[in-house]
Design goal:
There is one protein chain. By secondary structure, the protein is mainly alpha-helical. Strand 3 and strand 4 form a beta hairpin. Helix 3 packs across helix 4, helix 4 runs antiparallel to helix 5 and helix 5 crosses helix 8. The longest helix has 19 residues.
Length: about 210
């Protein structure tokens, strides 16, 4: 099956330019965050973007704003999202290798691969210990692939929902940064809503 072109190269280039512009220091007053300013620039000053494309862009901008990750991260998340749409349409598998590729696109400036250091959230050590991340992600990758393939996998007798798999990914926290953004892409791949993004439920333990 041929890949689906959701965002074309021209749109991605324009988005990258808008992100750079919005990331630059601004002397005036604005009520928009840098992240939402990227969406505003595309939505209000360009034409030819479909409602579905703008929905994805807005979703990514809002997620990046929640994470306070900056304007450039909006472009990076949309680029990864676009790759996910292309790959899903082409019949690619959602496994640990695909997740790593998406995570590296979300945060391209981090060292390649899974994290090798501990991380803290709100001063509390979070995620799997570095020596267990490869094992945990390999196991999760098998479950993601089974779910995405319609096999209705179970874990200790319980059906594995998209919500559960999303939470498991966030619990592992396999990268130094970008896990929340990557997790949203995974969730929407599993629910078949990459072109109409939905937010998963955020458990209390993810509040920090």
């Amino acid at each position: 099956m041929q890949k689906r072109e959701f965002f074309n190269n021209g749109q991605l280039t324009l988005l990258a330019t808008a992100a750079v512009v919005c990331a630059e220091p601004y002397d005036g007053e604005t009520t928009l965050s840098d992240e939402m300013a990227v969406y505003d620039m595309i939505a209000n000053y360009t034409s030819g973007w479909t409602a579905e494309q703008l929905a994805v862009l807005k979703f990514c901008a809002e997620e990046c704003e929640r994470q306070r990750s900056g304007a450039i991260s909006v472009y990076c998340m949309v680029n990864a999202w676009n790759h996910a749409i292309d790959c899903q349409h082409a019949g690619a598998r959602l496994n640990d290798e695909m997740v790593l590729k998406l995570a590296e696109m979300v945060e391209p400036n981090l060292k390649a691969g899974w994290r090798t250091t501990t991380v803290t959230i709100g001063g509390i050590v979070a995620g799997s210990q570095p020596e267990y991340i490869t094992r945990d992600m390999t196991e999760l990758g098998l479950m993601l692939d089974a779910h995405a393939s319609g096999q209705n996998p179970e874990h200790f007798g319980q059906p594995l929902t998209a919500q559960w798999l999303y939470e498991r990914f966030e619990d592992i926290h396999p990268r130094e940064d970008g896990n929340g953004r990557t997790g949203k892409i995974i969730f929407n791949w599993l629910t078949g809503t990459l072109d109409a993004p939905q937010l998963p439920t955020e458990p209390d333990r993810f509040s920090n």
